[in-house]
Design brief:
This protein has 295 residues and is an alpha/beta fold. Helices cover 40% and strands 16% of the residues. A 6-stranded parallel beta sheet has the order 1-11-8-7-5-6, covered by helices on one side. It has a 3-stranded parallel beta sheet with strand order 3-2-4, with helices on both faces. It has a two-stranded antiparallel ribbon with strand order 9-10.
Length: 295
């Protein structure tokens, strides 16, 4: 049976580490890191995510603000709000909760955020730095994946990592991060997607398989080899009449069958998910340190 990679527990450890650092700042009478989250509209899922992020900030002593804007706000008005926070020295990280209403150009919004405050790691400047191996803000979910591998002492150097999925949020950045010639990376990386005629020929050769395709229980035991490390990024809602919510969340991996042959595996929920917010806080703290040092 596989060893469970506990993202919830690891995320809490990271929060405690950051809380200790922020406590030291407060003792020394120094300002604390600040994160502003901009929410456009009343999307319940987005509101839940934003509230959770803000709660985590408060939990570790970080300054937090949620800027709630009407779904009918014009693009220029939204850009003006972002411009205001670009200049506000109390907030070192700016996060615009996606998705945005259809009349707003998401890419234009992302590009309007000061790259030094882009703690989501989506600005083209930071994406470029990531690809070329320079220090930058990593997108939070891929960053969380690398942190889990590091903290569970799972070797990556020279290992074949197969990434199933090519999104700009997970697939592409995690592949680029693992390619870098540095500690905690230096992997041989293959990216698979829907154009592959037979995914199994790739997934069966993986030492580490990262599933980020958005299809419930897509990866089965017949698709992987014994001893594989499984990182399941999927968050799929399926009907479940036995649940009070009427649904449950499952991953892209058929956990029950794959767990029996994998060496390590992340559960869903409780695996990669909690790490995303933890790494957002870590990025915000890094943005604060950069600001204080004048970088």
């Amino acid at each position: 049976m596989a060893i469970l990679i506990d993202g919830k527990k690891t995320a809490q450890v990271i929060k405690e580490e950051l809380k200790e650092k922020i406590s030291s700042l407060i003792k020394d009478g120094k300002p604390v890191p600040g994160l502003v989250t901009i929410l456009v509209g009343e999307n319940p899922a987005s509101l839940s995510y934003v509230t959770s992020k803000s709660r985590s900030c408060v939990e570790i002593g970080m300054l937090s603000k949620i800027e709630k804007l009407s779904s009918g706000i014009g693009e220029k008005e939204l850009l003006d709000v972002i411009g205001k926070y670009n200049l506000d020295s109390n907030y070192h990280g700016i996060l615009v909760q996606l998705p945005l209403p259809g009349h707003i150009n998401e890419q234009k919004v992302i590009e309007s955020i000061d790259p030094q405050k882009d703690v989501d790691g989506f600005h083209p400047v930071n994406v470029g730095k990531l690809v070329t191996g320079h220090s930058t803000f990593y997108p939070c979910t891929p960053y969380g994946i690398l942190e889990l591998l590091k903290r569970y002492q799972i070797p990556t150097s020279g290992k074949h990592v197969v990434v199933v999925g090519r999104s700009n949020i997970v697939g592409k950045p995690v592949a680029n991060m693992l390619l870098q010639k540095k500690e905690g990376a230096n992997s041989i990386v293959t990216i698979c997607h829907s154009a592959a005629k037979d995914l199994t020929q790739f997934t069966k050769s993986a030492d580490i398989l990262i599933a980020a395709i958005g299809k419930a229980k897509f990866v089965t035991s017949s698709m992987v080899r014994e001893g594989v490390v499984i990182i399941d990024v999927g968050i799929n809602r399926v009907e479940d009449s036995s649940s009070s919510k009427g649904y449950r969340i499952i991953g892209d991996v058929d956990f029950e069958s794959v767990e029996k042959i994998a060496s390590y595996i992340t559960p869903v929920p409780g695996g990669v998910g909690p790490m995303t917010i933890a790494m957002l806080l870590k990025n915000t703290f890094q943005a604060y340190q950069n600001f204080q040092s004048g970088n």
